[in-house]
Amino acid sequence: MAAAAAALAAAGAPPAIPQAAGAGGPTARRDFYWLRSFLAGGIAGCCAKTTVAPLDRVKVLLQAHNHHYKHLGVFSTLRAVPKKEGYLGLYKGNGAMMIRIFPYGAIQFMAFEHYKTLITTKLGISGHVHRLMAGSMAGVSFFTFGTLKSVGLSHAPTLLGRPSSDNPNVLVLKTHINLLCGGVAGAIAQTISYPFDVTRRRMQLGTVLPEFEKCLTMWETMKYVYGHHGIRKGLYRGLSLNYIRCIPSQAVAFTTYELMKQFFHLN
Fold first, then answer.
1. Quick count: other Cβ atoms within 10 Å of Cβ 228?
2. Is 121 within the bounds of a domain?
3. pLDDT at 21 over 80
4. What pTM value is reported for the model?
5. Looking at the domain assignment, is residue 2 inside a domain?
6. Which residues contact 147 (CB under 8 A, 6 or more apart)?
7. What is the CA radius of gyration of the chain?
8. For residue 80, which phi and psi values (nearest 5 degrees)?
9. What's the CATH code of the domain at 183?
């Protein structure tokens, strides 16, 4: 066989390409890696948003002061919408949201994986530092989830982990541990970033605020909110509702992504 290949090469013919062992062989798994990674991230983002779609719908109804629900609170609105519009009313507009969130989630997860690889190969940095750098560029929760996953698998691999279905040499978290780590990561990320989110929203509302409440810079706005309203009623106002949305969303996002990585042979 080797002699025949050498003869073909000497004659100027291209060498035969070895076939992968089955449709899911090593060669096939390297093909379209970016596309498979894109799909994994997009599906994870869509599943996460669908999980909290009822809460997003309620938030919009209350923010818009809808005349049917403006006198109700969050949980009473959650009960009232199915009675008035049916259970699908809680998912109204979710299809349009999927069109927006699929590429967003795909790019976010792809970016994190790409940044991790780039930082490791080009800068020679690994461990918590490279996760922190990659997470900072892709999203504050990626670092937290990656660290929780790494620490968990390092200290209790048998209790928390199992071999990946697409690569037995790779250890992954069990599904329920994935959900827990994703939820904790989302909660920590929200807690750290929430004051900046409050500041951003207040700056966006600058045109409708009274003149004495207007601030020009982020730092001025943050100082104003803290000085007049404090921490709990100012910088962290509404955080509890955000936890209700964020924790299940992030838990589902990271868990789905880890499962999709195995399904699309990304490990």
1. 10
2. yes
3. no
4. 0.77
5. no
6. 128, 131
7. 24
8. -75, -35
9. 1.50.40.10
Whether residue 4 lies inside any domain: the answer is: no
12-48: b (≥16 Cβ within 10 Å) or e: eeeeeeeeeeeeeeeeebeeeeeebbbbbbbbbbbbb
171 touches 164 (CB < 8 A): yes
Number of domains in the chain: 1
222-236 pLDDT, tens digit per residue, is 888 899 889 988 899
Give the alpha-carbon dihedral of 69, 70, 72, 75, to 10 degrees.
70
Q: What is the pLDDT of residues 131-171, one digit of tens each?
A: 777 766 666 788 889 889 999 999 999 999 999 999 999 99
What are residue 161's DSSP bridge partners?
A: 173
Structure tokens at 114: 């790409």
Residue 253 structure tokens: 């996002």
Tell me which residue range forms the domain holding 182: 33-264
Distance between the two ends of the chain, CA-based, in angstroms? 33
Specify if 235 maps to a domain: yes
